[in-house]
Write a structure and sequence with these properties.
The protein has about 150 residues and is of the alpha/beta class. The protein has a single domain, classed as Glutaredoxin (3-Layer(aba) Sandwich). About 30% of the residues lie in helices and about 30% in strands. The protein has five helices and nine strands, in the order βββααβαβαββββα. Strands 5-4-3-8-9 form a five-stranded mixed β-sheet. A two-stranded antiparallel ribbon has the order 1-2. The longest helix is centred in the N-terminal third of the chain and has 12 residues.
Length: about 150
């Protein structure tokens, strides 16, 4: 599981719109990676809308914002269209990136155990090192907290 000051694990993933994104191609600029459990669920929708609404502020600070879940590209495209999302949504269907970042965890809901993505966000500096990590994210106020950390880079 990566920690602050570690080099962020590289990945190449398909995104909505039909292209791919490689973290290594973004070297030289800061990146926010937010991992979320599923498209079109209440918390994930609020978080994705929050990042989309503030995307211009992140961009003005030279930061790329990427959302990652195990949903398919088709699911991401439907989710983005339904909620007018502007953040890039990457598909990690095989789960390797989720595992590399340590967000694929055993979860417990109503006494039922299952594997899923633990809502987490990583702030990666322009040098490719992880500058901040938020695990077990609670959505209210999270985007503002990340934006504040970006301003502190």
């Amino acid at each position: 599981m990566p920690d602050v000051d570690d080099i962020a694990p590289d990945f190449t993933l398909p995104r909505d719109g039909g292209n791919t994104v490689s973290l290594s191609d973004l070297r030289g600029q800061a990146v926010v990676l937010f991992f979320y459990p599923r498209d079109d669920t209440p918390g994930c929708t609020k978080e994705s809308i929050g990042f989309s609404e503030r995307l211009r502020e992140f961009a003005d600070l030279g930061v790329e914002v990427l959302g990652i879940s195990k949903d398919s590209v088709a699911s991401h495209e439907k989710f983005a269209a339904k909620h007018a999302l502007s953040t890039a949504l990457l598909s990690d269907e095989n789960g390797s990136t989720c595992e590399d970042y340590g967000v694929w965890k055993e979860k417990n809901m109503y006494g039922k155990k299952f594997m899923g993505i633990e809502r987490s966000t990583f702030l990666i500096g322009a040098d490719g090192r992880i500058r901040a990590i938020w695990r077990k994210v609670k959505v209210p106020g999270h985007v503002e907290e990340v934006l504040s950390a970006v301003r502190g880079l």
